[in-house]
Amino acid sequence: MSESRSTFYAPAFVGGGSCFTRHVLARQNEVPAGSRFTFYVLRFTRQECPNYQLSTINQSTSVSAILPLIKIDSSALLAKYFTPYQAIWIQADDLIHAQNRAAFALAEKSVRIGWTYCDGFKNVRKRLHHKNRDYLFVTKDWPSSLEYMHQTFRFIEFFNLTRSVLSRGEDYLNVPRLDPDGKPTPLTDQIKIGYIRFDNGSRIIAFSSNPYAMAVHGGDVGIDEFAKHPNARLLWQTAQARITWNGDMAVWSSHDGEDTLFNQFVQEARAGKGP
Questions:
Q1: Whole-number mean pLDDT of the chain?
Q2: Domain boundaries, position 202
Q3: DSSP 8-state code for residue 140
Q4: Looking at the 3D structure of the chain, how many domains does it have?
Q5: Which position has the higher pLDDT, 181 or 264?
């Protein structure tokens, strides 16, 4: 096993209705012996939550230049609109980048706890902070990709940031059709992608589950519900090539049995190793 790029691991989150029974805090100085992770994630119940400062990073490129009254990178704003674990997911890359490292984030979660929801805001914020830096979002099917893009644009509207958007919409790509074993065939399929293009050259692009859909792109990558992808290993190989030039990788999912590549990654992360 080669040296892990993993920098942030979030263990299982369990939600019951609107009451979450597990939260985490990421702390730089609490890395367990033998761990290859920059961050050790401390579990605690909601009743035990201390008054924790989510981030010490004060970004010089805040969106205050666009909207003077709202800084979307402020801890106070995140605390108002997001749960603690969502705010940590949103801000974790800031702390990792401050160490001049690319981020590899792995999150083991329950269903319907708002993880993909907060990732949309995270990547609006991140695209506005970084010019000419794309985000490639991949999920299990096109309806889920479409919902992600709709929610992401709702964040842009809510924070009155539409002036920073040049265009948004849907487009089509021709990709190889896969056989039942996940191998490409001579046939092609036309698939949809969704995009939001910002005035600083950055984009958010959403794909469905075909691993070849993002093959011509590069940038940061987010893989939603990785355990449920039918061609997870091929998707993983394709995603790794997209982040060659110091891109960030984020993988999150609920479990779908023990014989998945995602579960393998989780077990490696728990052991202080990584993919």
A1: 77
A2: 8-54+66-270
A3: S
A4: 1
A5: 264
